Amino acid sequence: MFRISDFSRFTRVSVRMLRHYDRLGLLRPAHVDPHSRYRWYSARQLPRLQRILALRDLGFSLEHIAGLLDEDPRGKSLRRLLELRRGQIEHEIGEGRRRVAQIEAQLERLDRRDAALLPDVVLRRVPPVRVAAARARVADLDDGVEAMFEKLEREVARAGARAAGPPLLLYHDRDGRTERADVEVAVPVTPAATAAGRHRVRTLPAIETAACASYVGGYDQWWDVAEGILGTLEARRLEPAGPIREVFLQFRAGDPEGLGLPRAYLAERDEDLVTEMQVPVRATGSGEGRASRRSKSRRRDASGRSLRERG
Would the pTM count as exceeding 0.90? Predict the structure, then answer.
């Protein structure tokens, strides 16, 4: 057997930590001298110490390790535990990579802002457009919208009603959501079209005044576009007056041939995507003013009726 100092040198585990393991019941000395209280360790204890160190390095707490070793002293279920931990670590790595991608996107956005490359915003009239449309609440905004567009485009293609024009996405929620979002996808159809499968055909009304901003590249530029539009609205004392529209002037599709999509609107690479955000606007307070006038008018009508009734 070996004194604790010698056992420490061979295992590269400090004397202080070996004493700590002893107090926790993780690794009791093979023998304790009843007179000197010196701790002695055996070579047969090395496998248990190795399991303790391996589990600790994998993120298990010492209390958890104690329970595992008591339930499974020979390490028969260690493989299952290690496989479980491996899955957890792989998930954490995936989350870490996602966060790194978000950081890189933020850094790129800051670079664009520093270079004063925010998109230009113009105020213009948006004409009406005849569309086949589908509206739903989607569990996940990106995947849900993509599935809705594919289904709608397929139905429009079967009906032979597709018109040359870019598809649109409308956001109907009053607040910003990425889960359970109320969205409507719309695809331009020919003037004679009345239906596209189960999907209704309607005319999206004209927007008399819309703040419009176009951008090229990936959809992660939403913040830059929103910043440009909000800045314009604030400077001109305007406010949003209806659902935000996204118009996909150049977009990617998984099966463009099968969906019968117009080639003029297709892009092969993310850097070739072209999108326009359209926000209906009105003068700040004009909606409240109209509501106030309607309220006053109703009060006048009611008081007039009351006077007539009393007379």
Answer: no
When pLDDT is averaged across residues 267-283 and rounded to a whole number, the result is: 91
Number of domain units in the chain: 2
Which residues does 223 contact at the CB level (< 8 Å), separation at least 6? 109
Which amino acid would we find at residue 75?
G
CATH number at residue 6: 1.10.1660.10
**What's the CA gap between 116 and 106, in Å, rounded?**
15
DSSP per residue, 186-237? EEEB-TT--EETTEEEEEEPPEEEEEEEEEES-GGGHHHHHHHHHHHHHHHT
Identify whether 31 is part of a domain: yes
At 181-199, the pLDDT tens digits run 899 999 999 998 888 888 8
Decide: 1 and 15 in contact? Cβ < 8 Å.
no
- Residue 115 included in any domain: no
